[in-house]
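Researcher: Next sequence.
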Amino acid sequence: MPEKLQHHEIAARLGLRTPWKLLDLAVKSDDTHWVGYKSFTVNEAFFTGHFPVHPIVPGVLQIEAVRQLCLCFLPGDPAAVRIKQLDRIKFRRQVLPGDRMRVEVELLETDGVETKFKAVCSTLSGSCSEGLFTMTTAPAPAPVLSEVPELAGECARTADITMDTDRVMSLMPHRYPFLLIDYIASAQGGHIIAVKNVSGNEPFFDAGFDAVPESLMCEISAQSGCACVLARPENAGKLGFFMAIDKAVYHRRLYPGERALVEIDLPESKSRFGKGSGVIRVGSEVIMEVSLMFALVDA
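Model: Next structure:
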């Protein structure tokens, strides 16, 4: 007999609150096949920042919906489970207000600590995203700062940064609550360093997270590269859309009070596709590695 979790049961199990409840129903068909459903309405809070003129469900929130479905049925404490690795994530179609999304995961293998899934998200139009997920289970550590924050230091916000917040906002349509970089500290050739200050006032902390969601760390990386590519004269007036995450590896979580330095290498190209790879670090500690791709389209 299939096991079903309604919206309120999912929220209680995962400890999540609005606007981060990304499943309305979860169904365990058998031990290896689970399905979730999400109806999107124009009143979703993230549409105000993604994007104000043409609302689109962020691709990384499809990743988050998959994560939430896995946590519904994996044994043990959901707070102890996190994404360890993403592979071959493809974003194929836009998900829009009014769409209903089906999330399907197939458990491929597990050793009791790490579990690998294949996931597909789809709407009436067909597959909108797919990829491979590796989840890991470990005791949930208390959220602590790795070091005492300093006002000065590497990539501090000074008068000679490459791109301030206003400039970033002039290039990309992202707005609150989905503008996830504060400034570009430097851009030399194809090597970019962007900065994201993690504040305890971030809306996802009020929604039940004690660290930056792994899905948003991918978005932070993508926005860092996209802003710099859109600043090139030949790309004036274009938009950047997230297309793929070839691989993302997470080493630890990112906590309130920390300053994330996002280093991305984006080789110059005349292609309408931008490819980059890099890391997110706190000081010298690498907490995530990522390879990604986005597309440039006319606005």
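Model: Helices lie at 7-14, 59-73, 165-171, 203-206, 214-230. The radius of gyration is 19 Å.
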